Each structure stands twice: as structure tokens, then as C-alpha cells.
Amino acid sequence: MTSLLVAGGTGERNGDWGRFARAVFLRGAMTTIDASSAIDGDLPSGFRPIAALRAQAQPVAPTLGPRRVAASVARTDVLPTVAAVAPRIEPGLERRRTWERRYAQALRVSDALTVVLITVGVSLVDSLSTAGGMTDLWTAERLPLLSGALWLLMLALFRTRRISIVGSGSTEYVRVAHATLSAFGIVAIAFVVFQWHGARTQLILALPIGLLALLINRWSWRRWLTHKRSVGLFTSRAIVTGSRDDIEYVIRQLERDGKLGYVVVGTATDDTLDADMSVDGKVYPRVGSTHTVAATARRLSADTIIVASRPDDDPEFIKHLSWQLEGTAAELILSSRLVDVAGPRISLRPIDGLPLIHVKIPEFEGGQHVLKRALDVVVATIALIPIALVTPVISLLIALDSRGPVFFRQVRIGRDGREFTMLKFRTMRTTAESELAALSAQNEGSGPLFKLKRDPRITRVGAVFRKFSLDELPQFWNVLRGDMSVVGPRPPLPTEVRAYDGTVFRRLYIKPGITGLWQISGRSDLSWEESVRLDLRYVENWSVMTDLMIMWRTAKVMVAPRGAY
Predict the structure, then answer these.
(1) Residue 329, SS3?
(2) Residues 209, 177 contacting (CB under 8 angstroms)
(3) CA pair distance 270, 154, nearest whole angstrom
(4) Which residues on adjacent β-strands are paired with residue 321?
């Protein structure tokens, strides 16, 4: 809120500078009025508009000291009774900041406990396992305590507890990983330079164990926060303003990702209609207009304003709105129709007061793809060891259930349109391909996909394998060969690719994956359009940390499957 503070009375004219200063700055001698009231002339009795005061007041040279200013004021007929006072925090904003501070403090305490337990525990185990045993406690724990302090410092410097990154997305995990690697990088340098005893143990054991423990700790807190937000706690009360079409688009995106923590309490449209808005069957009341959204936010204790679109005739609308929201809202969010562009590809670069949004163009070769391939080889190699152990059991179950081969081989389309043979454990009868034409009329899939919830071709054992995605385990061999990636778009059939249009072909820019966004978002329950959207989003915005998050969520989906048939 932009406020004007006007002092009443004329008693300061003959007083000294001290009495005038006290009259100006003591809150009891002043009244706060809204700037819009002052502009419209709707002032309380005894007050004069600021414009009139400025017109009557005589200018004072900027070089005058306090005493000369006071003397000059005493000689003029109009007192300088206008003072600017910083806006005060509204109760709604204070409530939000309170829970943000508490959540950040909880993260800080849990991080500290995790770091101390890992560094000190690893050091104790190392000391007890040596031939001489533990000699002096301070000597044994000096390095781990220093390592822990450095670790916590890096977590703070990398701003891993910033409230805008917690709760959703991979940024929080990326920052935790970067802070951890930076801390232990310094420890490694110190080990080389000073040859500290115990530094090698910290690097070999505390680094991987500690990083994993921190990530699990943050994931646990995120689950707790998501649960609290699902019942209306730890949320931000938001008002969306702009045109009705843009408001509808923003609300639909917010409702799609309920983990962001925004609860839309109303809309402020740029028209004069009083009609409420309905988005996907849910009604959102119209609580004001674009020009009164700041006052509406104060009235409803909304701490977030989302600007879906701004008036075309007011280029300074955002600046003035941010002034009016001072003390009322914590966030002023500008919506953009950059659809499915992930955060790491977007950066803001102000140039001489002009904020420019930079969108990084996707790249499909280079160092990141080499790193992705290295991750694929490591994960596939590790995964194939237990798969080799359970394959005889799975093979026996398949053979007892129906006659035919254990493995099912099918031609799929990989990167750049190249064909490859994909391996799966057989889950259907051997005559499944020839029976497809007779079942095409019962297709429940969308687009070029064929899906049946109760496909008669699936065997009894195959139904169990499909439910828990066990039939896809041999695809790790395809990953090791280089045909596929662990995470990527769904591998399409040649018949599907022939039905693609110009945009869907972008799915073939990278290798298909065993799992992906489609796998953890509903699989067969997704529409064709939604499946394509998720695949294209991954193709353009993937990262190593995103791959690790998808792998983790895939493991959870396998335990509690949804949309698998």
C-alpha cells in the first residue's frame, strides 16, 4: 500500500526543530490515508491534498542544514506537514512469514542433526576400527566437526532453504547436492595440502552417505509439507488478476500442480462484469477489478498476487501495483505463457531497468548427454545383477502359466527414428499379435495407442508382471546396449510414429526410456495429448537431477501402481 502521512495542526510553526521532528515522526500526531483517496480529494476533515501542499510550499535548498531548514520553515506561510513513512506489515503477511520462518528453522535443525551424525559417526567408526583405537576425543572429532561446520555453511550460502524452492521441483535437491560437493571439495583440497588424518574417511564415506541422508531428509520434509498443504495449512492466499481468459489459464495450471501451495481466494478481472469465474467445475469469486486488486488483497488478507495479464494502456502498472502491495503481499507473480519450459532454462537478466527473460534453447548433444549416458551405464549395470538372479524364477512362472518363449521381442523406434529390438518378459499369449485386429474395435486408448483394461490376451502371470512393471526389467539390457535410456519418452511402435504430426516427432530427439514423466503420472490412464505433452516437456527440459527424481518416484509407483494394465 502506498500511503501518505499528514500531520495535523500548526503548532510547529514557532517551535524549535526538536519539537517539529517529534511531531513528524511520533505516530500519535499522524494519520495514514490511502494514496487513492488523496488523489481523488476524498480526505478526512482537517487534511489538505498533498498536491496543494506542494504547490504552496516554498522550495528549500538541498544544502541547508537542520537549523537553517527550521528557520526557513518558520518564515513560510505553509508548513511542510507531509512525511513519508514506510508501510507496515499487515497481519496476513505476518502469518505467512511466521510459518515460513518456522519451516526454514525446522530444515535448519534437521540438516544440522544429519550432518553432525554422519560426520561424527563416520569418524568414530574409523577411529574404533584402526589398530590403535581412539586416542583423544578432540583429536578424533576435530576434523569431522570442522567438516560439518563447513557443510552447514555451504548449505546456507547456496540458499537451500529458500521458501520459493521447497515443496516442488528439483531445484532444492540440486542446491543441496551442489552445497555438499562444494564442502567436500574444500575438504579434499585441505587433505592434499595438510595431509589431515581422517579426511580420506570423510571423503569416501561421509560424502555419499551424508548426501543421501540429506536428500532423504529433504524429501521427508517435502512429503510433510505437501500433506499439510492438502488440508489447507502452510499455503499462500492468492488473487489472480488480468483478463478472464488469462486468469482461467493460470488457475488451471495452479490446480494441475497442487504442490505449489497457492490457494486462489478470488479473481480480479479487467472488465466491469460482476460474474464469478468457473474453471473445471470450481467457482472462483470475482472480488474486485485489476485497478483495485491491492485494496482487495488487504481486505481478504491475500499474501500473493498473480498477474495473469496487465492492462495494455498502463505500462507502469506492475511498478505501481508493487508499491501498493508493500506491507500486504509477500509475492507479486507475473504469469507467462511459456508453456512447459522448466525453471533451469529460464533466467531473468535486468538491463538498465528493463527485465529480460532469457530462455535457453534446448541442446541434444554435448557434455550433459555424455553424463546422462554414463548414468545410464552405471544404473543398468547395477540393476542387471539382481535381475539376473530373479530371471530363472520369472522364467519358470512364465513357462508354467503358458507355452511359449520367456522373452518377448518387439521392434520400437529410438532416437533419430532408428529401429531397435526391445526386450520384455512375455505377458501375453503367443498369438497376441494376430488377435490385435479383432480387438481394435474395443480400443480404450487415445490417439494411435491401443489399450484395453481387461485385455483377453494377457496371461494370469502376465497381469501381475504388468501391474508391478516387472515385465520391463529386461529393458535394462537395451539401456546397456545404448538403444534406450533409463529415463526418457515412451518407446513408440513404428505404426505410432507413422501417425505423428510435426510436433510429436520431437519425442525422437533423445533415446526412449524405461520410465519417464508418463510412467509416474498415470501411464495408461493418461490421454494421448497429455502423454505427448509430458514427453515433449521432458525432451526439452531434462536434467540429471530430474532423472534421479523420476527414478526415485518410479520405485514408489512400482510398489503402489496406478494406471498399469
Answers:
(1) coil
(2) no
(3) 46
(4) none
Using alpha carbons, select from 281, 283, 246, 242 the residue that is nearest to residue 265: 283
Q: Report the C-alpha gap between 1 and 37 in whole angstroms.
A: 12
Instruction: Look up cell 541547508; give the residue.
Output: 64
The pairing of beta strand 346-351 with beta strand 304-307: unpaired
Determine contact, residues 228/103, Cβ cutoff 8 Å.
no
- Give the residue carrying C-alpha cell 531473468: 348
Close Cβ partners of 110 (under 8 Å, ≥ 6 residues apart): 217, 221
How many CB atoms neighbour CB 137 within 10 A? 10
Residue of 313, 316, 354, 356 lying closest to 336 (CA atoms):
356
Do 509 and 502 touch, CB atoms closer than 8 A? no
Q: How far apart are CA 433 and CA 404, in angstroms?
A: 14
For the chain, the C-alpha Rg in angstroms (whole number) is 32
Reported as a pLDDT band with limits 50, 70 and 90, residue 24 is very low
Q: Cell 482537517 appears where? A: 46
pLDDT band at 142 (very low <50, low <70, confident <90, very high): confident
* 3-state SS, residue 63: coil
Give the residue among 323, 485, 462 at the shortest CA–CA distance from 397: 462
Contact 309, 246 (CB under 8 A): yes
Instruction: Inform me whether the pLDDT recorded for 252 exceeds 80.
Output: yes
Q: pLDDT tier at 191 (50, 70, 90 boundaries)?
A: confident
DSSP secondary structure letter of residue 89? P
Which is it for strands 236-242 and 304-307: parallel, antiparallel or unpaired?
parallel
C-alpha cell at 492: 513408440
**CA–CA separation, 313 and 423 (whole Å):** 60
What integer pLDDT is reported at residue 485 of this predicted model? 96
Smallest Cα–Cα separation from 83: which of 158, 21, 155, 148?
A: 21
Which residue, 327, 276, 278, 272, is CA-closest to 303?
327
Take residue 496 and report the three cell numbers written for it: 505410432
Alpha carbon distance 443, 428 (integer Å): 17
